[in-house]
Write a structure and sequence with these properties.
Layout (H helix, E strand, L loop, with lengths): L2 E2 L2 E2 L3 E9 L5 E8 L4 E5 L6 H16 L7 H11 L6 H22 L3 H4 L8 E9 L2 H14 L3 E6 L21 E2 L4 E4 L1 H19 L4 E5 L6 H11 L6 E3 L9 H8 L4 E3 L10 H5 L5 E2 L9 H12 L4 E4 L7 H13 L3 E5 L5 H6 L5 E3 L2 E3 L12 H4 L7 E2 L2 E4 L4 E2 L2
Parallel strand pairs: 6-7, 6-15, 7-10, 9-19, 10-11, 11-12, 12-13, 13-14, 14-15
Antiparallel strand pairs: 1-2, 3-4, 4-5, 6-17, 8-18, 16-17, 19-20
The structure holds D-mannonic acid and magnesium ion (MG).
D-mannonic acid (CS2) binds next to loops.
């Protein structure tokens, strides 16, 4: 019989998926073993939740019952290669949930936090950035001040654009914004011309008011062409941003060469990636500085560690996606990962609602601009199943964005 040190082989006995909606939808996976130890995974795919739930329940779970949960590498390869249909957000979010749950089980069984299984502590605390938003420049500035008061050392700044009614990424009321909206997709309007005119003025003002110390970030939500992004990056250079995120859609990786030729503003990409192959050219050509792929959408901790090690060769650091659609399970997995890898850059933090935090009690914490994964065995996150059951799935979508002439743009 295969043994893990002195222990007998453990077996996966049961696994199940539920979609819960404590304020927003989450697709959660629980894997149980014959030793009573269980692990949690997250395969939330904003606006496409039920597709991943079915992929897991109908096609993946039957294949993992009876397997040894310690075999994280073999099970990952089995699900990736064995599907024949490789990659894609649904497949990889499903595989990612299994992989993260298995690392959770392994940590609990060995009585050690997951960061110890990924290389041990490379740092105490993980630098995070928060989101400052406002319907206009002045409101955004107030929100930057609020984030500084909360202890943030790095802040992403987005504001409404004069001439446009509503902009994605901006809170509508008090208390942060939530990307997904219940019901069918709403539509926002977009103009790159008005946006490009506004953003340099916003950052000039932020630097003027807050000085040079604060790290500033900005998300373009894939809406610019490469040459427009080159112009924006160049005009933002005096305000030395930590990064400019998703300047252009990354399907055409070569587009980033044009951006790089025009600006020294650092570039972050990858929250929609689900495989290292999505960013292979970006990394090996040194067209980007930060890779944003998270454990849930990127297929788990197993491939993410390999991606980070590959990126390290090209001076690319991590900047993991941490919006509210990444559940506390993914946040914990990300924090263990950020703690262990050497080429860590920064971690996104968009705090979850109180309802979400109650459904997923956790040991990670925030203090003085940093987050800490905690030292519990495994991921240090649990699931209150009775509470989760009180929040059934509710249809929700990300909004659609149209240019002023009515054609669609990315978000
Ligand atoms: C954003 C997200 O956090 C980010 O950087 O781009 O709000 C993103 O749009 C959502 O997570 C999409 O699911
Ligand atoms: Mg983003």
């Amino acid at each position: 019989m295969v043994q893990h040190g002195a222990r007998d082989t453990m077996k996966i006995t049961n696994a199940y998926v539920n979609v819960t909606s404590p304020g927003r939808n989450f697709v959660r996976l629980k894997i149980e073993t014959d030793e009573g130890i269980y692990g949690l995974g997250d395969s939330t795919l904003n606006g496409r939740e039920l597709a991943v739930a079915s992929y897991l329940t109908d096609h993946v779970i039957p294949c993992i019952i009876g397997r040894d949960p310690f075999q994280t590498e073999d099970i990952w390869q089995y699900l990736y290669r064995g599907a024949y249909w490789r990659r894609g957000p649904v497949t990889m979010a499903a595989i990612g949930a299994v992989d993260v749950a298995l690392w959770d089980i392994k940590g609990k069984a060995l009585q050690t936090p997951v960061y110890n299984l990924l290389g041990g502590k490379s740092r105490e605390g993980v630098l995070v950035y928060g989101h400052a938003t406002g319907k206009d420049k002045d409101h955004a500035l107030e929100d930057v001040a609020r984030h500084k008061e909360m202890g943030y050392k790095a802040v992403r700044v987005q504001s409404g654009i004069p001439g446009l009614e509503a902009t994605y990424g901006i809170a509508k009321g008090a208390g942060g914004y939530e990307p997904a909206e219940r019901g069918l997709p709403s539509e926002y309007e977009w103009s790159s011309e008005l946006y490009l005119r506004h953003v340099p003025k916003l950052f000039a003002r932020v630097r003027e008011v807050f000085g040079d110390e604060l790290h500033l970030l900005h998300d373009c939500h894939h809406r610019l062409t490469p040459i427009e992004a080159g112009r924006l990056g160049k005009e933002l250079e005096p305000f030395h941003l930590f990064w400019m995120e998703d300047p252009t859609p990354a399907e055409l990786q070569e587009g980033f060469r044009i951006i790089r030729e025009h600006t020294t503003t650092p570039i972050a990409v990858g929250e929609v990636f689900n495989s290292i192959w999505d960013g292979h050219d970006l990394i090996r050509n040194q067209w980007i500085d930060y890779l944003r792929m998270a454990p849930s959408h990127g297929g788990g901790l197993t491939p993410l560690k390999k991606a980070a090690d590959f990126a390290e060769l090209y001076h690319v650091r991590s900047g993991l996606h941490g919006a509210t659609d990444l559940s506390p399970v993914t946040m914990a997995a990300s924090l263990h990962f950020d703690t262990a890898i050497h080429n860590f850059g920064i971690q996104e933090r968009m705090p979850h609602s109180a309802e979400t935090d109650a459904v997923f009690p956790h040991h990670y914490s925030f203090k003085d601009g940093k987050m800490f994964p905690g030292d519990e065995p495994g991921l240090g996150v649990d699931l209150d199943e009775a509470l989760a059951a009180k929040y059934p799935y509710q249809r929700a979508y990300l909004p659609i964005n149209r240019k002023l002439d009515g054609t669609l743009t990315d978000w």
